[in-house]
Amino acid sequence: MTIFRRHFFKLQFILVIAAFIFGVYYPKIWEQIRSFNFGKKKTANGNLSTENDLLLTKEQLNEFNGVGGQPIYLALLGRVYDVTRSEKHYGPGCTYHFFAGRDASVAFITGDFKNYIEDEADNVLTLNSPGILSLINWEEFYKKDYIYKGKVIGRFYDEFGHPTKYENKFRAMAEEAEFDKFNRQKLRDKYPDCNIEWSIEKGSHVWCTKSSGGKERNWIGYPRKLYELQNESFRCACIKEEYLDTNEVVIRPYENCASKSQECYYNVN
């Protein structure tokens, strides 16, 4: 029993010491564990990316412009791509060097490389629906053909690589533009374009056939000015007789053209 008690007291002493150490150092140890960011990566500017992306400020992105042998990065909609392998296009002195080291998303649509304002170069919400959809197509191109590197801290993404309200608004506008495009295509299927030609002698000539507007069908239709709702411009469309009184779009006849004629002349000298 004496030996057993002696070992028992030693065990108690060890447990008391361990409890004391644990009580003193446990908060510090736990804080150290919590400080680890598993699956995350610190970037050059000290920010943590939730997706291990490279996060760059505009100033840091500017350095990747191919000058002095630097890699060539460009950004589109706040996302950075390595285009170094296409140096003959994006390198110093080349056609598209303007895009190197910056996010100039707007210029992809306007083609204006001179009269731009640096702070507005990525302000894509000023574009119309076709322009927004064109940017989405450019985005798919770079995703497919070039190496994605990360994001630009600014208009589209915050310092942790999270989407900003601006980015969310742009994506919502892109979805709406895609929906509008779908509806416009439905209208073109229902009201196909006319054939159009112009000559000095006869002026403008519009006419309908069973294949005008690139739409093969079993009817011909009558040429009319078609205005989509809330649109001041028109296009010439071939209209079936049962749709001449539609409220879906605004339809106007051509001047000096018989109502049931399948061809019309206007702007005649």
UniProtKB/TrEMBL annotation:
Q: Which organism is it from?
A: Glossina morsitans morsitans (Savannah tsetse fly)
In terms of SMART domains, this protein maps to: Cyt-b5
The Cytochrome b5 heme-binding domain covers 56-153
Keyword rRNA-binding assigned = no
Pfam families xrefs: Cyt-b5
Protein name as catalogued: Cytochrome b5 heme-binding domain-containing protein
Q: Which domain of life is it from?
A: Eukaryota
Which family does the record assign? Belongs to the cytochrome b5 family. MAPR subfamily.
Sorted keywords for this record are: Membrane, Transmembrane, Transmembrane helix
Q: Give the transmembrane ranges.
A: 7-26
**Mind naming one GO cellular-component term on file for this protein?**
membrane
